[in-house]
Every structure is written in C-alpha cells, then in structure tokens.
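Q: I'm writing up a methods section and want to include an example of the input and output format. Could you take the sequence below and give the corresponding predicted structure tokens, formatted cleanly so I can copy it straight into the document?
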Amino acid sequence: MHRLYNSLEPRVMDEDMLKLAVGEQGPREEAGQLARQEGILFKDVLSLRLDFQNLSFNNIEAIEGLDTLVNLEDLSLFNNRISKIDSLDALVKLQVLSLGNNQIGNMMNIIYLRRFKDLRTLSLSGNPIAESEDYKMFVCAYLPDLVYLDFHRIDDHMAKMAESKHQYSIDELKHRENLIQSRLEDEQAQQEELEKHKAAFVEHLNGSFLFDSMYTEDVEGNKLAYLPGISELLQAYKDKFVIICLNIFEYGLKQQEKRKLELDTFNECVQEAIQENQEQGKHRIAKFEEKHLLSLNAIRDESELTNFEMKIVEYGKDITELFNVLMTLEMQLVEQLEETINMFERNIIDLVALFIENVQSLMAQCRDLENHHHEKLLEISINTLEKILKGDVDEDLPDDLRPLFVDKDTIFNAVGASHDIHLLKIDNREDELVTRANSWCTHLVDTIHKNEIMRNRRRVKEINQYIDHMQNELDSLECSDVID
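A: Here is the clean output for your methods example:
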C-alpha cells in the first residue's frame, strides 16, 4: 500500500486538501457537526498532520496553502515528496515541525527555519540532508533555540560545539539578518507615518512632491527651464511653493489632532452616559429580583384562591412596572445620546469645513505663485523670441528649444500648456483632499448614527427578553397551580 501511493502523481497542497485534513482531524460528534455547519475557522487550528497516517496525504511535493493557519503550533508533513522548506511564513507560532522521510537535500533549508522563533522540535530524519556529516552540528548552530532534533534532546555540549564550529558564518548571518530587520522596521515606520499623514489628508505635502509632480509630464516646461534666467526663477518658485505645502501639511496634522480629540471626547461622553444608565437599570433589576423570589414563594405558599389571584395580579404589575422603568431609562438615554451625537456632528462638520476652507486658501496661494511664474516665464520667452528674430541669438540655446521659438503663437502655446498642467495638478490635489475629508466626515457621522440605532435595538430586545422571561415564570406558575 505504501509503495502504491508513492507511485501516484505528486500532489500540491490546496484549499480542498486542507479542508479535508482539518475536517478529519477536527472535533467529533456534536462539536464536529457544528464546525462543519458553520465552516472551518483555520485560525483556530493548532495542530495538523499531513503524513503517512492518512495515506491520501503522503504524496505532497510542495508546501502550499497553509497561509490561513496563523495559530498553528504543530505541523507534520512526514513521509511525502517535499524537497524544499518554504511557504510557511504565516505560521509564526510554529513550535513543532515534522518533515521526516521527504526529499530535502539542501542544507540552506535550515536557514529558512530561523524565522520561527518559537520552533523547539524539528524532525528531518529520512531526508538526504540528514545523511550529511555536518547535519546535526549545522542544525544546532543555525537553530540555537531548538530543544529536540529527530526525537533526541540537544545537549549543551553539542550546542556549544556547534556554535564554536560555525561561529564566523553565524555572525555574518546575524549581521545580514539585523540589516534586513532594521530595513523592515524603517519601512514599517515610514508606512505608519504615511498612514498618519493620510488620516490627516496631507500625505506627500511635507516636501516638494506636489511641485515635482507638476513637471513630471510637463514636456514643454522642462524644455523652457533651460532658458537663460529661468533656473533662478524656477528655484525661487519652488522654494516658495514648498513652504506653502509645508504649511498645509503642518496645519493638517494639527487639525487631525483636534478631530481626534473631539472624537475621543465624544466617545468618552457616550460611554459614560451608557454606563451610568446601565447602572441605574441594574439597580432597579436588583431591587426587583430581591422581591422576585419572595413574591414567587408567597404565591406558591398561598392556599386561598382569592389571595392567590391577587398576588398573581400584584406580581404582574411589578413586572409591568419594571418594564416601564427600564424602557423609560432607555428612552432617556436615547434622547441624551441623540443630543450628544448632534452636538458632535455639528462640531466635527465645523472642524472639517474650517480645515477645508483654510487649505483651499493655501492652495490658492500655490495657484498665485504658478500664475506669477507663468507671467515671468512668458515674458522671458517672448524676449528670447525677439532676440532670435533680431539675430541676437544665444548660441548656447539647446537644440530642442529652438523649434519653440518660431513665432509668438508657438511660444504662447508652449508656455500655456505648461501652465495648464501645473494648475491641473494643484486643482486635483485640492479636490482629492476636499473629497476625502468630506467623505470621512460623512462616513463617520453615518456610522455613529447607525451604531446608536443598533445599540438601542439590542437594548430594547434585551429588556423584552428579560421581561418575557419573568412573565413566563409567572404564567407557568399560575397554570401549574390552576392545574393542581
């Protein structure tokens, strides 16, 4: 049977195979039925065996499809056809890995396993790699936190010998790993900073990005930049433009902090109101339940039918009174939160509107700078054309500029095209900022209103369920006593 399966076509892990394996090794009976009905949550799987114990899994050639098993601690792929250890990156909690009886032959596969900081048990026996003379030393050196290798505990003497033998290579590897880790941390920090800037709607405004983007597709403007006197003009333009962008950036971050403070204060007010209301409700329920047991016992002990019926009615009134009290508390909370939400809505809309208004004012300054630069550029270009027409031409004029200086229309078109591109870039960045800020505000307010509606519905449902339970107890008591 074993040879028969090994002669079959090699297989690659896929989702269907993974579901089958998890299903077979998952909970049985009632829990298993529930899991099958609700769907398998792969993140909950802690241990998985894809080895010879189930012969449908002993022909795997490549490790794939395990990305969803983020909490997996124990993985067995014993007795397959795997030749390379990879595609396990998502299994950050892996502690036990069994890859015995596979086709792993390259010792560099061990290096890959260094990323699994919790790995303590590893089995590679039966692989070509395990036949190497330096196998155990290499594994112990490069995986210093490993406790068990091929079902044998690694003793301190072996660990020290391995470390000593491979010290130089390990030090080099650690250096490279530290550089990579440092680069990853820098990239992560930059990404987090960028997300912070995006939340303020001012990303890439803390430098010359917007200015540079105006010239990215500006063919004519880049040509005209080589005209005599334009270089100094362009640098002065850029310096002033970037200062305005930095002003927008700094202002945006400050306004984001104000919006965050406003939102945090609002959330605190909401939570305080809900908590205070809940405490009042709990207090009234506690008082009711103190009386509840006494009332039920008194009804059960009553032998006189008239008194029995009177007590039933009285207890029913108590239940109704509790319902009215709880619903009144909820109505009061709804009114209180509605007022709080409306006040927050006005404040946050005003903050966003002020932010947009001031940004648009600063963007207008960018356009003013562009208009001024356009006028100067056009003036210099016309003067250059007049010199060319008089024969007083600068021999250093670049060849790709000469076709522009044929007549005034050509100059006007070239300078105008450059100007239009610049204004469009400024307008688009402003529109993007305004649109995103308004969308954020609208979405936030809508979400807050929807969340309050959902909270109210849940609370009303809770109250009704509790009151229904109390009433059912009374009704069952009344029925049983009538029957008796």
